[in-house]
Amino acid sequence: xxxxxxxxxGRVPRAAVVALLAFVVALLPGVGAADEPxxxxxxxxxxxxxxxxxxxxxxxxPHELAVTCAATLGLVAGFDDGSYRPGESITREQVASxxxxxxxxxxxxxxxxxxxPRFADAxxxxxxxxxxxxxxxxxxxxxxxxxxxxxxxLTRGQFAAVVTNAISYADVLTTGGxxxxxxxxxxxxxxxxxxxxxxxxxxxxxxxxxxxxTDHFVPGDPVTRGQLATFLMRGADYLDEHQRWxxxxxxxxxxxxxxxxxAADDGQDADGLTDEPDDLRGNATLTVNAFNGTLAxxxxxxxxPGPYADQAxxxxxxxxxxxxxxxxxxxxxADDLDDATGGVVxxxxxxxxxxxxxxxxxxxxxxxxxxxxxEGAPGGAVRGQLHPTGD
Length: 391
What we know:
Distance between the termini: 41 Å
Number of strands: 9
Low-confidence stretches: 1-38, 266-277
Number of domains: 2
Radius of gyration: 25 Å
Order of helices and strands: HHHHHHHEEEEEHEHEEE
Strand content: 15-25%
């Protein structure tokens, strides 16, 4: 599947968030505290008020906030004695169930299962569906002999690959997408030659991991229960930035712009037209669902006559006064505007057709403006800076 084919997430039907499983994991030797959260936190995806009711006496820094956040979301659970045991290793099958739950939290729909199971050695596992769902999505893979080895531990390098794939799937419903971006391969001294060096570098570049030390990631060590929670909740924080974490995504943001004439080439001040009853004036209203990657727009051009340019209505990245601001999204062409009923044209565009993420429009609309190119305006266009309603 091509990357752009799934960027328009509004085309995918969404069901209620699937109920997440609680897990009790086996007692295995662990490693020391790692990945101290110095770059990303959990405040945006787990406000403090949401985690006050869950505490584990044996969990402290650096994983306490991530563990309690993951437990609040139902992704992980403690033991009968009230402990969490953050330093213990975790098995491949247990990781599969937790990551499946994390993805389904992120996207808000159940991951599809294959028609036929692919791992014979996972058929007796209580985690079989999670294993098969992640394999079907390409988030995990088996071994060369077509087994999954569900009861074996997962290394930090292997888990970095799983998290990288999970982030991509949460973004575009397939692996190998634009998130996370490529990272600096020279960050850690001990990952050169590792099968997973690219994934480790990608996660380091977005603050999901900071390593066991500044220079060492230790890809061959088992991933621990504490580290797993930290990786995943920092990943959720990263997805939240891009409006790809369903629980905190803004699914409807309204942006508006008043479209005023551009100054004419003869030096006429466009603002000088405002007192005239027949001034050229238009309005743009954008309703952005950054999570689904859709943008519904309405352009009122009843006072902006044509003829219109071929690339008539466009969104530009930059300040409204910047004549060279690049086009990042075409809203409508000349035929669309000519056919508008009463001078009003409406439609929906998808993020796949844009050079920017719609989350960026939501976060910084002042960096984006709408323009309608028309010979009916003195300067050849009307344009206006976007801003949220009420501003």
